[in-house]
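seq:
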Amino acid sequence: MTETMTSRQVRSPVGDPALSDLGLFTVLLGAALPLVDFFIVNVALPDMGRDLAAGEAVLELVVAGYGLAYAVLLVLGGRLGDLFGRRRLFLGGMAAFGVTSLACGLAPDAWSLVAARIAQGAACAVMLPQVLATVQATTSGPRRARAMSLYGATAGLSMVAGQILGGLLVAADVAGLGWRTVFLVNVPVVLAGLALAVRTVPETRSQRPEPVDGPGTVLLAVSLLTLLAPLTEGRAAGWPLWTWLSLAAFPFAAAAFYVVERRADRRGRTPLVPPSLFALTSLRRGLVMILPFSIGFSGFMFVVAIALQRGAGLGPVAAGLALAPLAVSFFFVSLAGPRLVARYGTRVVTAGAVLQAVGIGLLTLAFWRTWPEPGLLALLPGGIVAGAGQAMQLPVVFRIVLSEVPPARAGVGGGVMTTTQQAALALGVATLGSLFLSLVPSMGMRDALVVTLLVQLAGIAVTGLLSLRLPRTVD
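struct:
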């Protein structure tokens, strides 16, 4: 029996103006900045380490601190937007992102950089949930479908473009600033974004503002921290006792969070993450798909950046440009995504998983045959095919996740989705990255890279199988 999913055609509440094309561009710019900055540091880490005399554990905190603060606070950021106004939180979050980017670029030492990155991640958590909530509240029907497709395309392209941009900026060494430009470049972009947002982004908020759930917020933060902190820092720190205690505490923290949220939901209160939200089949199944996809995506980007620079001896520009075919392919295929979905439904996601698997397989073969000098031409076919496959998955899954979320809960729905994605991105770096780095001493760079990519292929297979359970159509 074919299962059909349709978006709830709930129009924006009376008084909420429609989002113009320029307004959509502005909020999508806000969506791109956090993801670009998650990946932009990958190719800049070696230069940061040399300049700041920072060890591997501290450098991992530059990545992990940002990701942890970002993931932990996302749902809260969505709730605050529903409560105080999404435009207001979007502007505040973007301004804070600009200030913290400046602090990162001017950091005098490694620990100052870590602190600034944590603050930068918190700023992203305030800004990003307002993007999806604003789209949900100010669009409907085909316009919402188009906006969601563009959001998914922006997210995927930003993750690849960030690494490419990082390589170009480090190599350009503008004014002798080196790696600092990967953060300072955000400042003029933020200033332009704020000027646009003031004029083009309408103010919206929930018709029934819901108070912040204090116990739920604390327990969600504890749950994510006990899982992500030891996984991201454990290998570099030598797996001290605190990492194992933290991992052991995770299931108890997660269980306590679920019990508290379910109890609040049943008593008519407003939990941070309403368990009833997961009654939506589209949201539940879409979130399950986001996990393996994002873990594989971020792990791949991190591992390839390290392998090309440390193993193949490529500079930051060449390492970044090696991924350019993937980015170009992702961009053009994502533009065709809405038409493909309209014709073939969510089976486009399954086809995308197959294409991505073929592309990663071609890249694995290219690394195996050409190492230690993997030329850009050898990586071209795999990059193009993998990018096309990813573009057929991510934008569509984002649309599916939020398709049935009512506008009144747009903030919390967007927060849950982006929290899932961000936590998975951090897990990808922690798991696949740690696997790769732990294999290098015994197997060598090439074999460690091949094994890691084969593990990613297994994850892509899981994603493809999960896609078969998605509703057949999406409006």
